[in-house]
Amino acid sequence: MRLRLLGLSLCALGLLGLSTVPAGAAGADATSAAADPVVTNYDSQVRVERDGLLRVAETWKLSDVNGTFTRFIVTRDHLPDDIDHIQEIGDLQVKAGGQDKKADVKVEGDVTSIAVPDVSGGTTQLDVTYTVKGAVAKTLDGTEVRFAPLTGINLPIQTANIVFSVPEVSHVACFAGPIDSNIPCSLAQVGETSGPTFQQTALPPGNTVKMAVGFPKGQIADNSIIEYRHTFKRAFSTDAAQLITALAVLLLGAIALFALYRLRGRDQVDPRRVVPASLFSLGTDTRIDFTPPSDLRPGEVGTLIDERIDPVDVTATIIDLAVRGHIQIVELEHSTEFARPDWELRRVSNAPAEELQRYENVLIRAIFGDADSVLVSELGKQVRANLAQVQDALYDGVVKRGWFTERPDRTRSLWATIGIVTTVVGVIATVLLALLSTWGLLGLAITLVGVGLLVVGRYMPAKAPAAGRVLGQVAAIRGELLEMDVSELPTDQHAELCSRALPYAVVLGGSERWIDALVATDSTPDEADEGFTWYRGPSGWHLQYLPDSLRNLTTNLTGALFAR
């Protein structure tokens, strides 16, 4: 296919050059028909030096050629495996009638053109000499000259004679016709006293004469000039060196990532360990006290489990603060059945005298500022602007408790940065290596290691040994929240204890059954209820609406606090 395209290109170039000839002829004699331009004879002497350089001396006899005479030489040969053999034309000299003639040499794609301007009509002789470097290539038995001195000439050639001056040869071949022709030349022989001789008669315009002359080993040096075509296959070569190197980088990267996780990211605790624990304990006078182990708070529990602060951790903290008497949640009247619900958060002035965690104080200040109440729909930018401080305080809190040696968010951020930098370096290396070499696979390997760092970095925050017992207690509490028979709680404390357990169930699971337990405290289902001290419904509200109310509250709080 490449040869056919090259042949079409040469024919087009030839016709372009030929289109200027008749005009010159017509200008010379407008009253008579111009004779057709033709190359009556082409003689070429090719001397092959020991180093592989070709020294070419040509004689062109032209008839009725006017204007610019252009001839072409194929100087780039496309071979399999994305290899090109290049030939370089040098030391060009042109004479016409014994006088030096200036010629233009251009390399366009696969072809080098030699254009001789101002050729006069009638009979003209051009003497052309030049050198060709890169025409000798290695073969299995030695070396071989591959040269096509006549290519795409825009004129018919009546007779072409090419004689090689060489030492001992092993074989010769000559083909004439289209660029991909296998038709033998009129004559190709090796004389007893002379070098290989090739002859072709009646060569039509645009056709090619190419020959090959073989030499035994040690006679003529290989001077082939090789360039590699830039293709996707070659840019990402799977040759042994490139493939082994890329696989080695991947393997070493995988080993390094595994070792990194084992040394820095693996928790120093067994998360499957269960330590006896309960949210409830028997107090004085046979009453049940709500006593979470280690004074655990819902927000801390959620952060400890997944090592990050999620929206559910913050909303569970708000509900927990309400249940403990620091905030009151009031559901507002619905203007219409389809109106968007809203809630008012009120700061409780006579809140219980208990010490709040730092992150809880920061959250209350972020919600209320200097006000005593705020609408959930109006929490807006002020809360979101201060939410980072809440997260900082909560992360600092879990580190202070000794559950982590350093803040999980900073650990993730550090390794995410390293992963992003490695990935970007890998992408840049892939592009550069693919453009400039055959080592694109190496860049891909580096990129994959960077992606691996991004994945492993998410698991790099490691829990400290002090977190082990707490995680075991959390596992016991989760089982209690999911499986405990709520009906066993004292009737007079049912609403209080279920309310206290609800924020933990929001984080650990099972919140539906604890909300249902609160709904079950409704002793007068046909009458409207105000709700609880921590959650007040609008007029006409019933406890049966509590599941939908809390679900909508959680959704709206999450949107107000975390929406961008």
From TrEMBL:
Residues 1-25 form the signal peptide. The chain crosses the membrane at residues 243-263, 414-435, 441-460. Pfam families: DUF2207, DUF2207_C. Residues 39-214 form the DUF2207 domain. Keywords: Membrane, Signal, Transmembrane, Transmembrane helix. It comes from the Bacteria. InterPro entries: DUF2207 (IPR018702), YciQ-like_C (IPR048389). This is DUF2207 domain-containing protein.
